[in-house]
Amino acid sequence: MKYQPVIGLEVHVQLKTDTKIFCGCSTQFGAEPNSQTCPVCLGLPGALPVLNKKVVEFAIKAGLSTNCSITPRSIFARKNYFYPDLPKGYQISQFEDPICQHGWLDIKVEGQEPKKIGITRIHMEEDAGKLVHGELSGSGDGSGVDLNRACTPLLEVVSEPDLRTSDEAVSYLKQLHGIVTWLGICDGNMEEGSFRCDANVSVMPIGSEKLGTRAEIKNVNSFKFVKQAIEYEIQRQIDLIEDGGTVIQETRLFDPNSGKTRSMRSKEEAHDYRYFPDPDLVPLVINQEWVERSRQELPELPDKRQQRFIDELGLPLYDAEVLNGSRVLADYFEAGVAAHGNAKLVANWVMGEITRALNDSGTSIEFSPVTPSQLAELLKLVDKGTISGKIAKTVFDEMWKSGKTPGAIVEEHGLVQVSDCSAIEGIIDEIMAANAGQVEEFRGGKEKVFGFFVGQVMKASKGKANPSVVNELLINKLKG
Ligand code: ADP
Ligand code: MG
Ligand code: ZN
Questions:
Q1: Over the stretch 351-377, which tens digit does the pLDDT of each residue have?
Q2: Which residue in 54, 62, 104, 133 is deepest, having the highest Cβ count within 10 Å?
Q3: Rounded to two decimals, what is the model's pTM?
Q4: CATH hierarchy code of domain 421-479
Q5: Atom 22 (ligand 1) nearest CA
């Protein structure tokens, strides 16, 4: 029998607000344990939560960017369970009437038509604290609780079970990651858990109408692990069924070392959260005006901007994709185009020299020592014929190192291109005289030696001879 895998993702997005979701404590990472706490996030009796407006604004932006409708009156609910990192004994989340509903993303997988993936809901919730074990706990070999993270704002983005392969799942995740970082509402750091994913996986016989029983793989924290975990899980379930077994609904953990998933708890052991509306928080009312204001504030999203780079700037798809890898990179490129005018040329430099220099120096584009307008200035020197394209790369390296302007560097090092025919002719004559053998070869029909002569002339001129003038003069002289 052949099987159809089905995947649905639940993604937790940690929001980049200065303060927590229901109190004024800082969300800064890495502070002294329990130094960023107050009666609210410590869960002291009688302390009342007050909703952080910024969290709502971020949630609305996420919803609008994923084609969701914004719920006019949404409700906070208590999700009840016991764990030492959750002092209140419940997590404030949303259950019925979450803030965003019924959205979708268009994903693109290589070799496939674009495909719509439904987003069931996006809801707001608070994070729990963290258990610290052993030495770091401050209690010898015991464990301690650090509540600095308690009450940190999260969005949970739940997809429909519309994904069919691990590649589709990764593509969906990357797109969502791109959107929340582009919006500036999440730092996107997966290793630190700012963007983490639970993957629900099932298989069913091909042609079946009814979804198979799913396993939920918890907290997978890189794109690579998501792919591995899903692929392992699909095969495990198929093998199990083929061997006459049945898949049970359970929560599983992915172990990056073995590349396998293992059972954590079955449905029988699953929590019954007894959700109910939180009486401490009034319903959140969002009027149409607020939604429209947020819509106005949205930046141009990567998908749209990519299409504009193709349609308006005439870039190939590949360039448009690379340059939209991040918002700052796209901004840099566009500033360069505004200052120079030739989009394809600027694109080549940004994807070539700039990217190489950034990699070599371990810097990111925001800290590029060469600004977009300085890059444009350099390219204009090439346009005017002041320097050759080749010399421009040398000048660029020097700009990167010294921070000087291209004009100053060209002058200081005497790099102005030589287009003067008589000067170049002089060089050509010397080289032909010194390489009489090769001249004979060329005249005897071995045209390949032409490249040798070009190389020699460029070398003798220290790269400063204008290559097109060199070509033209050489041909004439060699042909005699
Ligand atoms: P829970 O809250 O218990 O995790 P939900 O109904 O909210 O359950 O579903 C969570 C996720 O599981 C969603 O992303 C959904 O698309 C996905 N899902 C539901 N049924 C299946 C299935 N049979 N196979 C794969 N994914 C599924
Ligand atoms: Mg779940
Ligand atoms: Zn607090």
A1: 999 999 999 998 889 899 999 999 999
A2: 62
A3: 0.81
A4: 1.10.10.410
A5: 214
